[in-house]
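Everyone, carefully examine this protein record:
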Amino acid sequence: MSGVLSVLNADVEADRSVWSRLWAASPMQSPFAHPDVCRLLSPGRATLMAAVWTEDSGHILYPFFMRSIEGPTRGGDGRFELRDIISPYGYGGPLHWGLADAAESAARFWADFDSWARDNNVVSEFLRCSLFDEELLPYPGRLRQRQTNFVRDLTVSAEELWTGVLSKVRRNVRRAKREGVSAVIDTEGELIDEFLRIYLSTMDRRSSAQWYRFDREFFAGLHAALPGKCAYVFAQHEGRLISVDLLLLGADAGYYFLGGTDEAAFSVRPNDFVKWEVMNWLHERKYRNYVLGGGVRSDDGLERYKRGFAPDGGVAFLTGERVFATEEYERLTAARRAGVDESGLTWDEEFFPAYRQGPDSVAESDFETVRM
């Protein structure tokens, strides 16, 4: 049982087409594995790529960004550009389907991929994992448990769906209905501007990082990449749209992606109403799972809020990390640590990759980056 590794570059149209066709043929159709969605979620200057493994009727699809590492190159003479790998924002890692023996295929895939990585001067790898064990390939590096994420099982009756949320959620949904709140659902992007009005005002209120302030072009790109697979679920009150969640849809899972609420509308409890309507909408369409995500920190208010919709649905969100070139990693880390120490900042021993931390760095292991 032999397999073939291909590494695709999304900037090459032929490679992008191969990737898109493989994604369309996958049983999960994870929105975070689509090349055009990945491109929208670029961490900056990086090359979007995917490692693909094919054997008989089985496949592995691993999207990632390859980034150049600034600073001294190998040997210090500029001959070797050093790089590292990071998976796109969201739930990712190497997805697999149709493999006769996932563990055996994983061993061969990683052996070939690691050879490719070393040939391309890759120093380290950081990935964010799928929440579904059956989708994720066994990983040979260090897996770290981050926050608890919440997944609501939708393969239940309508009655069990209702009784399966916490009582405070049911109270808030009833309150919203008494106040005359109703649902409006848009899967075509006709209400993007209404979404942006609510979403951006929410980002302002929360003083959210610039990375989260997506523009209209970004959302238009989502619709182009995933036609019919983006759903805006609004709460409407007295003719005005007051709260919204944006869902990204896979083959059998709906993922909460972004959302917001008009501050003036809190009293009519639109937040819980929207998520309840999301659950109903997905349930009616035979989706199996509703992924709500998690909080920013363990047991914070956001995590407790999401737990209310899936009290028994806590799932550990994992990240993976590996070092391919230990000597280079240690050299880069020592140089960065000296700079951090000189600046008076505190060195974070848990940050990965360590050589990217600093006052202007984006924390790969920070939940402002990896959470949903």
